């Protein structure tokens, strides 16, 4: 199978989804209104509520939701074969992720930019809000703790990426001033920013920075984790236009250029997909593809974390309501394109099937390293770029997206503590600094409390991320569906994905429950039970809320 065929089919399907299906959803289902006054204008404060150009906001949304997950998940899932991963990424992007992301933005904008967690209490009920807040907290805890480990590992393993990764922050700070103060036009700023980023990528291999193996009794990896959390804490309290928006925007442009380079290498090289279409010779211990495929590939098909970003930061910056289609749906398409690139790199970026098999020796193999190595192989052989430079470019791409997700994730975790402060009348928790310290403290407690001096505690609960994340996506679709029912609009476009996710998530949780029990991993077993109970309660709340809404409609007729 030629990788070019998969590339054309994948991009063609996603393009049709955006130009045809998303237009139908935006005009006929969500009915986005250009005259509606968005919370960004109504509550403008120059910090969190800032009306934003849709292209800049798209950059924020896309890079915040992308992270490393749309690379890691697909690059692991191809162990079952390239066809299941390919179909789920393309169909999931078109029929699941796009309506989920744009729907979450629409629902939040129509309710004073409330987060999905707070909104659940108004739309579904207090019990559902309590469940939702627990699930949200777990997801953010996992994302922040684990992405810090991922970025630290990339900088320890690829010292050439350190200068580009941290230099990008300085570039973003300058860009933020140029855009916000209207010193230069957006197009000029975009060009200058991209040139600066890629200059740093080419400089990186010449100025490698290696953290010592041990610093003050801590491993180099742990030191990077502490530095990353210190940076994220500061970044999460800055006004969004200072760092968050410009960093995300320029990283979004950088990703698209990186994708063009990777896709261009595929066109010129025309590599063969060496991985099997359906893998009939799975390594021992590989779990069943159904239902685990649908929780292994979350970001890139549909992800609950997207709902947190959509209703947490994106909805507070939406200039016009119709922008939700471009920002939300096309943001999901951008992530689907990244997931497609990960699939192609992890299946066609090897010289032979034997080379591919040597990497995929067990479930969980592959991941970011398969993406970087496979992608660098294709770029080097297809475009002639030095393999070290290509590897640095792809490493920086992965690290920058993980970093922007971590920035947004910590800001969202601060919002959660502030919402808890409002719910339980703890005024001190509603302040930025105490809420940020609580957010960072909970992440560090997991990282170092469970992981010891290495700071890798987040990896302990990471096996539950896929199921917890998909449960969160189901909850978000539940809120959107109930709103549609109350507005007397068609609900099947959101209800069908919601039911599918709940079935797959509960099935995956049951399989993991048995696995954790067999392995004697009682900590994860306990957490699995908590998430499983939450999933069942969500399903019950879903049925109850929809029944109540339909009954109200019947009484009004």
Describe this protein's structure.
- The protein is mostly helical.
- The protein has one domain (3-159, 231-556): Amino acid/polyamine transporter I.
- The protein contains 22 helices and two strands.
- The protein has helices at 3-29, 39-42, 54-66, 69-77, 82-109, 116-123, 126-157, 162-180, 186-203, 220-237, 244-269, 289-296, 304-312, 323-348, 353-359, 367-383, 387-423, 432-450, 458-461, 465-486, 492-519, 522-556, and strands spanning 214-215, 218-219.
- The chain has a two-stranded antiparallel sheet.
- Strand 1 and strand 2 (218-219) form a beta hairpin.
- Helix 13 (304-312) crosses helix 20 and helix 20 (465-486) packs parallel to helix 22 (522-556).
- The chain is globular and about 70 Å long.
Indicate the topology:
Elements: H1 3-29, H2 39-42, H3 54-66, H4 69-77, H5 82-109, H6 116-123, H7 126-157, H8 162-180, H9 186-203, E1 214-215, E2 218-219, H10 220-237, H11 244-269, H12 289-296, H13 304-312, H14 323-348, H15 353-359, H16 367-383, H17 387-423, H18 432-450, H19 458-461, H20 465-486, H21 492-519, H22 522-556
Antiparallel strand pairs: 1-2
